[in-house]
């Protein structure tokens, strides 16, 4: 038996492929982890989880890195509040660092220098505070320049 929240008690079952899944929980601190290459996302915070702090982690080689909020139709996620700071986004990352739905989150002190598609995203009325981040989409610039040079020859 595992207790995921005051309202959720059940048997531990198979994961949907996330390295870390926070489901209907609060006051969670995820610190000093190195995550890469999972079948689904590296970290998902869903189902009205709140008071989540995610600092000091390293991410490498993955597509969907971090999701805050289950889906656009689950309005209960509007109570999610998360702080994501001092993490290292390394090589081989594509997108969702993090992506937010409905919630309020603060993301700060990052050097986004290796992403391929997008770094921070939000939809479904999310509020995002970005502070002290540096964005350098070098990979995309090289791809666009390469395509431009080939098509104009």
Folded structure, characterized:
By secondary structure, the protein is mainly beta. It has one domain: Pectate Lyase C-like. 9% of the residues lie in helices and 44% in strands. The strands form 5 sheets. It has a 5-stranded parallel sheet, with no helix packed on it. Strands 4-7-11-15-17 form a 5-stranded parallel sheet, with no helix packed on it. Strand 1 and strand 2 (9-10) form a beta hairpin. Mean pLDDT is 80; it is low at 145-153. Belongs to the polysaccharide lyase 1 family.
Primary descriptors:
five-stranded parallel sheet; lyase; mainly beta; EC 4.2.2.2; metal ion binding; 9% helix; Pectate Lyase C-like; 153 residues
CATH architecture: 3 Solenoid
Give the H and E element order.
EEEEEEEEEEEEEEEEEH
The shape is: globular
The CATH homologous superfamily corresponds to Single-stranded right-handed beta-helix, Pectin lyase-like
Keywords: Calcium, Lyase, Metal-binding, Signal
Protein name: Pectate lyase
EC number: 4.2.2.2
Pathway: Glycan metabolism; pectin degradation; 2-dehydro-3-deoxy-D-gluconate from pectin: step 2/5
């Amino acid at each position: 038996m595992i207790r995921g929240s005051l309202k959720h008690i059940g048997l531990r079952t198979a994961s949907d492929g996330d390295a870390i899944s926070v489901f209907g929980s609060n006051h969670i601190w995820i610190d000093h982890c190195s995550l890469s290459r999972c079948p689904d996302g590296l970290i998902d915070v869903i189902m009205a989880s709140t008071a989540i702090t995610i600092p000091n982690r390293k991410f490498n080689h993955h597509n969907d890195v971090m999701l805050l909020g289950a889906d656009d139709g689950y309005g209960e996620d509007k109570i999610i509040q998360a702080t994501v700071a001092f993490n290292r986004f390394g090589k081989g990352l594509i997108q969702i660092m993090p992506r937010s739905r409905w919630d309020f989150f603060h993301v700060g002190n990052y050097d986004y220098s290796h992403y391929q598609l997008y770094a921070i995203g939000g939809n479904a009325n999310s509020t995002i505070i970005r502070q002290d981040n540096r964005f350098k989409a070098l990979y995309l610039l090289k791809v666009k320049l390469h395509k431009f040079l080939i098509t104009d020859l």
